[in-house]
Amino acid sequence: MNKEEIIEIVNGFLVDEFEVDGDLITPEAPLKETLGLDSLDYVDLVVVIESNFGVKLGEADFVGITSFQDFYDLIENKIKAKG
Question: pTM above 0.90?
Answer without folding.
Answer: yes
